[in-house]
Structures are given as structure tokens and as C-alpha cells.
Amino acid sequence: MVRRGAGATMILRHRDGSETRARLPASAVPAAPAWCGDLVLAPALQYRLTLSVCVLGGENWRAEMRIQKGEACLPGRADRRFCLLSVRLTEGGPQALGEILQALAARVPLVPTLAKEWSDLATLWSESVTPLKSKPPRLPPGVSSGAALRSILATSLEQLVANHECLLQTGDAESVHQMRVALRRLRSAMSLFRALLKDPPSQAVSEELRWMLRMLGAARDQDVLMADIILPLDPLVGSMPGFEELKRQVFVLQSKSRATMKAQLSAPRFVMALLRLACWCSVAGIGQPAGDLPVRAMAQRTLARRYRQVRRGIADIAGLDQEAQHQCRLRVKKLRYAVEFFISLLSARHAQKFIDQLAQLQDRLGALNDIATATKLLQAIALHAEKRPASRSRASATEIALAAGLVIGWHRRRSVALLAQAIAECHPLRKLPPLI
After folding, report:
1. Which among 254, 256, 257, 240 is positioned nearest to 405, based on CA atoms?
2. Which residue has the higher pLDDT, 166 or 20?
3. Alpha-carbon distance 342 to 354, whole Å?
4. For residue 61, what are the CA distances in angstroms to 57, 64, 65, 96, 97?
5. What domain range is 425 assigned to?
6. What is the pTM of this model?
7. Checking CA distances to 254, which of 142, 210, 304, 305 falls within 20 to 30 Å?
8. Which residues have C-beta within 8 Å of that of residue 206, sequence separation ≥ 6?
9. What is the pLDDT of residues 329-360, one digit of tens each?
10. 410 falls within a domain
């Protein structure tokens, strides 16, 4: 690696594969690999960097904006240009920082990202950007409710930002799912700590989280329809003309939903909402008297209450209709998130096993909900096909309706096995030792 400036840091790579780092004057840095005794000097990364520091200020606030702009070169790869912008508040409250960032987002196409410095520039060529799953926050013993809330929000915000960046770079369908998980975890945390979040800014954030979920919902439904509902039947009925046309129409809808979603994710409104969310997460609950109380007692009450709700919901899960099953799944998910949020405070050694049991039940009920949602989507496609003018090159409306009915019937039969599995997984959840 080469660092331009008064000197340069070189990686000296020996023929046996070992490396030695050396500090050399800039004039000694070779433009191409060169032999020096038994060493080969090979620049791993070269870049030109312009660093601009701007001091911003107003009444009762000051901020420092750093702009790192330049071009990076990796041997054998195309050059990459970059522009990293960071703003650090030095005086004043976070409201000023939020206003600065939103003003920038309204004028410049920003993409919020996790902290990145010049030393991370090699990631510009990275092809290993993958969706980020949720991780539990680390809550120290005796942590206050307000500090616990902000720590929980920070981990969910990190998951949201990382998967937003991954989706824009790779288009990975899993990143859509993980963004939705992050948004739901944020909403679940707000529900847990609602006593600290009765102020107008918190209510505004809650509305924006709902909007983000709706924006991602259609694309996620189409992804699930294709991956979990249509494609599993391809080896069985892929030769049917109606099924091929049905799959083609689902692919068209999936592509349109994905394009609409990506356009919205890149639009100023989403970026500004994400920046407002980040600023809010850093101050949520501050100034509330209950925020200074230890979180342990609140966690104990919350887990006990949500566990009672889940037990009531799964008592007769076989007799629940579709909507009641959906509500049961939501209660299971909320309990699982609550246990994950507070897992570092739990004394029971069965906590992780309990989370795994809740996750299995949530997956079964989620699959049942996916089948119900897919049924409505397939019925809409079949109905639309009846209204479409006939075409010789495509399957008839009758063939499409027949294929849709076959898919629905196959998955409804599968739903019987899913429900039986869900019933079996409810038994160990009915007897739970105290977690705290």
C-alpha cells in the first residue's frame, strides 16, 4: 500500500510470502513492481486524496465538515473515484446536525454508509458486500433505560444502513428482507420503551418507519412469491404453458417492484428520513425522568407480559383463523426481539435456546402468512389475465388460471404440514423458567 505525502509506507513482500512494512521517502516509491535484493516492492493500493475541512456554525452551534475526495488505483483493476463526507458536531444539540445533513441531502445525492476512512478504500473494489443480520446490543450491568434504548436503536440502525448500502450495490433480495427486519426491530424497541418516547419527534420517526416498511413491502412480497412459491414447483410443472406464462408475469411484476423500490431508496426523501432517524437514535429518551432508572426491572416486566401474551395466543393455535395466526406471529416476533434486546442481562442459561424456539415458530407462522399473501397475488394475476386480450404467442387465461390454482393448491397442502409443525413447536414454549 502507498500513502502519498512526505513519505510512503510500503509493504515489502518476500518470495516466501511473508511481509515486511517499511517507511520510505516519497521519491523512492516505484510506479510499478521493482526488485530490491531479495524483496519485491509492489504498490498494493495507490490513491490521490484531497482533504477539505470546513467549519460551519450558527447561533449556539458549531460543526466540522470533512470532505475526502480523490481517485484510488488497484493494480489490475479499474480506477475508482470516491468522495466521503462526514460532519461532526463540536458545539450545540443534534438538531443542528440533522438540519445540516438534510440540507445536504436535498441538494447532493448522498448515500449514508457505515464509518469509512481512507484506510478502507480497498473496499471500493470489494465484491464481498453481503446483507447484515441483526446482532444483540451489549448492555452493561446496571445500565439505565435511556442508555439501553439508545444502544438497542444503534444496533438496528447499523443493520438498516448496511443493508441499504448492500441493496444499492448488489441488488441482493436478502438485503431487502434484512432492511425490513431492522425497521421492525426499531419499531419493536420503540414499543418497549414507549414511556420514554411520547415527544413529537419520536412520533414523527414512528410514522417514517411505517412509510419505509410500506415502501419495501411490495418488492419483498414479489421476491417471496418468486423464490418460495413459484420456483419450488418449476421441476414439477415447469413444462406447462400456463405455468411458464405465470412465472414470466411474476418476474415482470418483481422487476417493476424492485425498480420502483430502488428509485425510492435513492431519492432525497428516503435519504433525509434515514439521516433524521440516525440523529434521533443518538438522543432518544434523553431528558425523560424514567430514562435514568435501571432497565433491568422494566425488562423483567416486559418479558413476563409478552410471554403471557404469546402463551394465550398459542394455547389453541390450531383453531385460529388466518388473521389470528398473523397476530400470534407478531406477538411471537415481539417477544423474540425483546429477549434478543436484553439477552446480555439475562441470567437464565436457556435464553438462547428459547430464542431459537421462538424463531422456529415464527418461521412456520411466517411461511403460512407468505402462502396466504401469495394466494391473493396469484388470484390477482389470474384475474388480470382474463381481462387481457388473447395472444397466440402466450398461454390463454384459462391455462394461467389453471397454473395459478395448481400452485395455490400445492402450497395449501403444504400449509397443513406447516401448521402441524407449529403446533408441535408450541409445547416447549408453554413452560419457561424465569429469564431474569
Report:
1. 240
2. 166
3. 13
4. 6, 11, 13, 7, 9
5. 305-430
6. 0.83
7. 210
8. 187, 190, 197
9. 999 999 999 999 999 988 657 788 889 999 99
10. yes
